[in-house]
Amino acid sequence: MSVLERYLCFPKQALSRVPVSLGTQSSTLQSRLGLQTAALDKPCRLRLPVGRRALTGRRLLAQLAGPLGRPAGSKPLAHQLEMTVNLSRVIPLAHAAEVTLNDIRRASFTFLARRHSPAVRYPILNSFDHSARDFRGLTVRQSRCHVSLNTISANSMRFAISIPQYARDSRFDDGTFRAHLQRVEEIGLFESAWAQEQVIGAAGSLAPLQTLAYGAACTERLRLGCAVFVLPLHNPLHLAKAISSLDCLSHGRVEVGVASGGRGRPFGAFGVDAERPVARFNEALALMKACWTEPEIDFDGELWKLKGASMEPKPVQKPHPPIWFGGSAPAGMRRAVRHGDGFMGAGSQTTAQFAEQVRVVRDELSTNGRDPDTFRIGKRVYVHVEDDAARGRHRLEDALTRHYSRGGWSEHILAGPAEACTTGIGAVADAGAELILLNPLVDDAGQLERLAAEVIPALS
Prior knowledge:
10 helices, TIM Barrel
C-alpha cells in the first residue's frame, strides 16, 4: 500500500482503488500508485502536478475530483479534495512512485463541499503507521474545510534508533540482530536505524557498511544510515562505490553521515595528514558527489584526479542519498548548510550545546537563503529507561565508558524512569531537533520496547 493510499482511508465503507496519474508537462511519465477512498459514485482521478525534473521538496498538490462517497442515508458530500504535501527531500520524477511516509514533512487537506451539506465527521484511519498516529478526524461543512495533520507537521519529532552492531568476543548473533531490526520495522515508530563507525577501539563494533548491508537484507522499509563516516580517513572512490552499491541493495533506503574528524583522531594511523583534514574532507565529498551524479567523471583535485572515468551503478536515490553532516565546530555547520541535506548533533553534546549549534545552522540557512524545509536537523541521544534512576545512569555510563574508552558522560545522557526520559527528549526537540536518534547501549531489545511503549507515545 502506498503512502498516498494510506492517507485517505474512510472506515466502514466499501473501498475502491483509484488509479493515479502524474500530471507533468510530459505525457510520458505515468505511475499507478493507487489510492483507497470511500465508495465512489463515479470514477475519479488523483492528479499530481509537479515540475519537469523533480519533486523539489517543496509543495506537491494532489486534487481528487468527484464525490468522495456518502455516509449512510445522506447525499454525497464533497466534490473535490485538495491535498498539499511538503516533501523532506528532492525526489526525481523517475522515482516519483517511491514517495514514502518518511518523505512527507507536512500534509494538509482542503475539502470543497456541496452547498447545504450537513456537517459530517470522517475519521482518518491511522493505517499507515500503527497506533502512534492519532488523527482525530475531520469535519466537512457547507463550503470549504481545511484540515492539517499536525502529527506529521514540519515541527513534529521523528524518531530513529541505533543499530546494535556488536560482535563481542568475535561472536555475532545473527538471529538476535535480524529479529531486532525486524521488530523496529514492525513497531513502525522509527523512520530509520543508524550504525556508527569505530575502526580502532575495543568495543567490538562491526564495520558500518557491512552492518548496513546485512540490515538491508533483514528489512524492507526501514531506512538505514551511518552517523558518521570520518571522511578524511576514507578513499572517496571506494566509499562512493560502497554507498552506491548499498543504496542499490537496499532499494534506495540509505542515509549518509559524514564529518571531518576532530582533534584526537588517529590520522597518522591511516596515512592522512593531520594538519589538513578539512581540505581532504571537502575534496573527498566533492569527488563522491561527482561519482554519484556524473556519467563521465572529470575531476581535477589536489589529492585526486580522474579523466573520463565512470562509476556504475549510480545510487537509486537522486541525485544521491541524503547527506548529514556531523561535528561541533561552527565552520562545519556552515559547510553542512552549503553542501549537505541535514545536520546531526552528536550524543556527546549536551542539550544546551546542541541548541547553540541549531542557532548557527538556522542563521546560516537564512544567510544562504535556503529553505529550512530542505534541511533537516537531528541529534543522537544516549538513553536508558530504568525505573531505578541511579541504576540506569550507572549502566549507561558504564556502557559508554567501555565503548569510547573514556568517562565523563554524566551530563550527556538521559537515564531513569520513562517520564524523566520523555522530559529530556522533549527538551532536545525544543532545542531544534526534528529527528531524535535514540541510542541505548544496554539491553537493546528491552529498551526498544520501553521506548516504543512508554516514551515515544508521550512525545507524540
